[in-house]
């Protein structure tokens, strides 16, 4: 039977001064992967979304070794955390776990921690996906990520998030049961993750003056996406081909649609031509680019290049994954900096990139 963990979890609503746990006489011991296990863990979780924040704290708490004291502090506000980590007497943490969408914010936080002597032993754990990791590395190329990973200063943990993903960092000996990924838990985890996706998206975009135009000729695919948008209270119009799409877009004021999700292969007018015509219309009217996202079973080879040439902002692979769709909708319908123009897809190997 596991001994109860010596732990403390601070709510993001706490107004108390954050004080990492003090452990006297503790010595770091070697872990199986060659790193050192500290005598205590003091962890700061930065995540603006409530349910994601709570899930992240829960996952970490389930993988921390029961014989090591620990404290997890969760905060939603990045600026507040930067103040906590800065100043003449900064609060020191063994780990700072980052769940942020904005690459600029992640890069700024990395610079603050990696350049600070008081935080010379702090590990930055970035919850991300392959696309965002690439953008982080392109945005902050001055860092030697291979060396930072080897020294355990910067670690990337990939979504979908689950306790076993944190085990390599917090429980390399796999002492806790949740540190081992078990197939029988996958269905339950998937259901929890999907519920979390719905709740987070509904909180950010639901019942607001936002409207999606879904351009899709396949009735089944159309119903799947519409059902998802309905669950999170986002308004949607539909078109079954590019002709109907452009008619609807051109009949409304620019910005009437917050985003266009457009299938590439349709009768009468395909997605490439549809996107080109909308971009031409925007240029003629000197309007900003509407976010237009391609829907395709694959974006390899010439498909990706044709999306770039047509002027798409991004793409979603089919069949549509709700988590991926949710991330794209939040990226374009609730950007961290609304004054920034949306980036278009770039040629592979170029800088800036899509998604």
From TrEMBL:
PROSITE patterns with a match to the protein in the record: RESPONSE_REGULATORY (PS50110)
Domain Response regulatory: 211-333
Domain of life of the source: Eukaryota
Positions bearing 4-aspartylphosphate: 263
GO biological process: phosphorelay signal transduction system
Keywords, ordered alphabetically: Phosphoprotein
Pfam families associated with the record: Response_reg (PF00072)
The keyword Phosphoprotein is annotated on this UniProt entry: yes
tRNA-binding as UniProt keyword: no
Entry-linked PANTHER family: HISTIDINE KINASE, HYBRID SIGNAL TRANSDUCTION HISTIDINE KINASE J
Name the record gives this protein: Response regulatory domain-containing protein
Organism of origin: Friedmanniomyces simplex
């Amino acid at each position: 039977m596991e001994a109860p963990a010596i732990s403390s979890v601070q709510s993001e609503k706490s107004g108390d001064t954050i004080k990492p746990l003090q452990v006297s006489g503790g010595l770091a011991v070697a872990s199986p992967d060659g790193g050192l296990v500290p005598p205590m863990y003091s962890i700061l979780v930065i995540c603006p979304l409530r349910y994601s924040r709570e899930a992240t704290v829960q996952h970490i708490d389930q993988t921390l070794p029961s014989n090591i004291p620990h404290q997890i502090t969760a905060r939603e506000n990045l600026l507040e955390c930067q103040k906590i980590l800065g100043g003449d007497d900064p609060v020191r943490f063994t780990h700072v776990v980052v769940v942020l969408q904005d690459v600029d914010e992640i890069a700024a936080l990395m610079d603050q921690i990696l350049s600070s002597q008081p935080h010379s032993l702090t590990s930055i754990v970035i919850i991300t996906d392959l696309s965002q990791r690439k953008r982080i590395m392109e945005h902050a190329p001055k860092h030697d990520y291979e060396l930072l990973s080897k020294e355990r200063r910067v670690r990337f943990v990939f979504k979908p998030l689950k306790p076993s993903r944190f085990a390599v960092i917090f429980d390399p000996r796999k002492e806790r049961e949740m540190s081992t990924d078990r197939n029988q838990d996958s269905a339950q985890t998937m259901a929890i993750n999907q519920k979390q996706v719905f709740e987070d998206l509904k909180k950010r975009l639901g019942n607001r003056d936002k409207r999606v135009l879904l351009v899709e000729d396949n009735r089944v695919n159309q119903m799947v996406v519409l059902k998802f948008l309905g669950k999170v209270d986002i308004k949607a119009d539909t078109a079954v081909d590019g002709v109907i799409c452009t008619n609807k877009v051109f009949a409304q004021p620019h910005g009437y649609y917050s985003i266009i999700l457009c299938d590439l292969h349709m009768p009468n007018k395909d997605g490439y031509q549809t996107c080109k015509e909308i971009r031409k219309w925007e240029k003629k009217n000197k309007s900003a680019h509407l976010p237009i996202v391609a829907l395709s079973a694959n974006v390899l080879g010439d498909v990706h290049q044709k999306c770039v040439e047509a002027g798409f902002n991004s793409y979603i692979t089919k069949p549509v994954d709700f988590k991926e769709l949710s991330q794209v909708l939040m990226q374009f319908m609730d950007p961290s900096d609304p004054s920034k123009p949306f980036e278009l897809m770039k040629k592979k190997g170029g800088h800036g990139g899509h998604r």
